[in-house]
Structures are given as C-alpha cells and as structure tokens.
Amino acid sequence: MANQIVVFKLNNEDFCVDINQVIEIIRLQTIVKVPDAPSFVEGITNLRGTVIPIVDLKKRFNLPLSEKNDNNRIIVVNVTNRPVGFIVDSVTEVLHVDDSSIQEAPGIIKGIGKEYITSIINLNDRLIINLDLHKVLTEKEKKEIEEM
After folding, report:
1. How many of the other CB atoms lie within 10 Å of CB of 3?
2. Among 56, 68, 86, 135, which lies 20 to 30 A Cα-Cα from 141?
3. Do 53 and 137 contact (CB within 8 A), yes or no?
4. Of 119, 116, 120, whose CA–CA distance to 141 is shortest?
C-alpha cells in the first residue's frame, strides 16, 4: 500500500509528515509577535480571516536558527481541532512511499522524540524522519497556545 508524504527541510535534513495531516502549505507571511507566548511560538498570522498560531519547528526542536527567506513555508495542521502553522525551511516534494520503505524508528531516535517521530522512511539511500505534527506539542504546550 502506498502512503503519501510531504517532505520538508530543517537545516538541510529531510523530514516528512503524512499528507493526511496537512490542511495546506502556504508561503511565509506576516507574523505578529504575541507577548508572553511560549519561546517556540513565532506569533500569530491571519489565514483568510482565521487567526492561527505559528510554531517555529527549529525552535521547538532546539535546532540552529537561520534567517527567514523566500523558500520558507508554513505547514498548516489541525492540532486539537484548531489550525496551527509550523514554519519549515522549505517543502521539497510530495512522495508516494511503499510500506516496505517505512521502518520503525531506531531506539536512539525514540529516546529523543519518541512522542512525535513515527518512523524512518528509507528511500534510495536517503533517510527521511517521519513526524506526527499532532504530537510535536505536549498537552501543556497545546493548552498554552489555546490560551494565547
């Protein structure tokens, strides 16, 4: 059975998310800072009349930050029945992958992000970390974002 994934980059590393989690992918747009927001929350933006929180995935994963540019995208996902945008360096492709390419995340990775790393996709000597964006935020963090 083929699975469809959206592949994106964070600091030249490949990550992906199941396409069924994605509401839409948009260009980086004006983000308004919110006082006292959690450190990984970049701010809020207006998406066709709906105000949505924007999370910087690099900040959330404690990765080195880089300047924003025209390649940056916001992947919009429904988190706790509310759209949340996740900033990534770029969205590179949408792929169909066979079940045979999907491997359980090795123990070393499970310790780091066991909540949100669902598997590793092995495609032609290329490893892609498969994330569950619904689980990237803890329940406490989801509540903080809801209360913003």
Report:
1. 18
2. 68
3. no
4. 116
C-beta of residue 118 within 8 angstroms of C-beta of residue 130: yes
Give the phi and the psi of residue 144 in degrees, each rounded to 5.
Answer: -60, -40
- Asked if the model's pLDDT at residue 85 lies above 90, the reply is yes
CA distances from 91 to 8, 34, 57, 75, 126 (A): 4, 26, 13, 9, 16
CA distance 112 to 128: 16
Sheet strands (E) in 1-148: 2-10, 13-18, 22-27, 41-47, 50-56, 73-79, 82-88, 90-98, 102-103, 117-123, 126-131
Write the pLDDT tens digit of every residue in 92-126. 999 999 999 999 887 766 555 678 898 999 988 89
Express each pLDDT in 74-83 by its tens digit.
Answer: 999 988 788 9
Residue with tokens 């669902």: 118
In this structure, is the dihedral angle defined by the CA atoms of residues 6, 7, 10 and 15, taken in order, positive or negative?
A: positive
Q: What is the pTM of this model?
A: 0.91
Q: What is the DSSP letter of 69?
A: -
4-147: CATH topology: OB fold (Dihydrolipoamide Acetyltransferase, E2P) (2.40.50)
